[in-house]
TrEMBL record:
PANTHER family: RIBONUCLEASE VAPC2. Its cofactor is Mg(2+). It comes from the Bacteria. Coiled coil: none annotated. It holds the Pfam family PIN. One of its GO terms (molecular function) is hydrolase activity. Belongs to the PINc/VapC protein family. Keywords: Hydrolase, Magnesium, Metal-binding, Nuclease, Toxin-antitoxin system. Residues 5-109 form the PIN domain. This is PIN domain-containing protein. InterPro entries: PIN-like_dom_sf, PIN_dom, Type_II_TA_system_RNase.
Length: 125
């Protein structure tokens, strides 16, 4: 089964795995990190180079109608276990992408996806 790489995996030392996919949401998160205030010019260059490399390696999966429909399930699942989905919308959109495309979700932060175990297979590297 193909893995959808969460942003936490993409920023790691060895982000690329065989048979992997990424969500456009992860590229948005990485792009946001490039422009963070207070970064040194060297760190900005490193982050921009990483974003460029990842963007060129993958054809990111867009947020389309199937992902939006899957998000409804993800949102409901998170709320059903008493969690507020608002602070984790980008993570949950990544989970919805995995659900819509029948992908395993590879993350270094499995706690971000609590309550989704019955919808998405969440694995750590």
């Amino acid at each position: 089964m193909t893995d959808l790489l969460d942003t936490s995996v993409l920023i790691g030392d060895d982000p690329v795995r065989n048979a992997s996919a990424v969500s456009v949401i992860s590229l948005v998160e990485l792009a946001s990190g490039i422009n963070r205030p207070g970064l040194s010019p060297a760190e900005t260059r490193v982050r921009r180079a990483r974003w460029t490399a990842i963007e060129s390696m993958f054809a990111p999966i867009p947020v389309d109608r199937p992902v939006l429909l899957a998000y409804l399930q993800v949102d409901q699942a998170v709320r059903s276990v008493g969690r507020d989905p608002r602070p984790r919308r980008t993570d949950l959109l990544i989970a919805a992408t995995a659900l819509a495309h029948d992908l395993r979700l590879l993350t270094r932060n499995p706690a971000d996806f609590l309550g989704l175990e019955h919808l998405v297979e969440v694995v750590t590297p």
